Amino acid sequence: MFDEQTEKFYAGLLKEHGSPLFLINEKKLKESYENLSAALKEYYPKNLIAYSYKTNYLPAICETLSKFGARAEIVSGFEYDIAKKIGTEGKNIIWNGPHKTDEDLKNALREKCRLNIDNKEELGRLEKIAKEMGTVVNIGLRVYSESNARIFQTWSRFGFCIEDHEAESVVRMTLRELPHLKICGLHTHLGTNISHPEIYRSVIQKLGQFNASVIRKNNISLQYIDIGGGFPLPSNKPRYLGEWGVPPIGDYVKNIADALSAYFKDELPLLIIEPGRYLVGDAVKLFATIISQKIKGGEQWVVVNSSISALPRAEYIDYPVAVSQKQKSDAGGKINTVIFGLSCMPNDILGRAQLPALREGDVVEISGVGAYSITSSSQWIALRPAVVFVKENEETKPISEREAAKDVIFLK
Length: 412
Prior knowledge:
Number of domains: 2
CATH topology of the largest domain: TIM Barrel
Largest sheet: 9 strands, mixed
Strand content: 15-25%
Helix content: 25-40%
Structural class: alpha/beta
């Protein structure tokens, strides 16, 4: 529910830019970044925050978070181009991911980006390129714990396994056969929406054991631990879960910090974290207009002028839905409401909520949609909405115009 003043502000933007409309809130971006930064400062000052570009790589978002102090975490060449376009120095770019082209690797070496390596083939290509360029490259190895993956359902597809000695064999191979590569960090990423902070502690325990049994025994000086991201938001409850309790970000940071202090006693490494959803999720809203309404089986069914093509994660995330104060006060009680998209598919559902009786022309607000929405959207049936950036002082800046057919249809 939003108040009368806020409703007028939104109504003016909808009139100017059309409906549906994505709004990005700079205040929310700053609030999330400062909350995380404050927790890190309290529990583990030796840290570095790198924003996960893949979560939402709109340059306005990346540039704003860079202004607050975030580095860039990228997984593709075009994300590298975005980082450079907004003025990010190579030393402030962390390049992850399972696929880096030779050109990507050359750019990373020229710009002195931080590289975390995912597979043996990539190690071999990087060694060849580094040799050709006459340089020695500091690298991190992406590793994972198979036992933790079984217990906590964390990811095990990427990187080198600790338990079956794959990671150890890669370390020995690098020392023995790849003289232009120097291991100086360990990287991992547990997955997404990790709802229990203790899972991070368990994973860091595995990293600490690997450091003691393999890294230090091979006289490698470990400079950093990159723990990735995966921090959840209350507003991004997975549909398949009944209860969804999300601890504050400080609980996550404290568990990570305590684990590092316990398992890396001799010399605390630099902690790198790579949040995406936590930083941008709550900073973006989608506004859509109701085009039809009916009561069906005791529920209110409304269809809005947007679709899961604009909000693909709505299929399995329960985003918060609200209506204006005026709509609520005019309508009386609330009823179970299903918000359908405009497509011809029955599973095109943008949300479910307890809402008052609605009618054609009413506007619904879907919150918490900053992660994997705008940049994962498609032109399936409905073209993409306009995007507007709302600055801290409430000045507005159009980021992209509403798409038209000419933007996607090319006739020869």
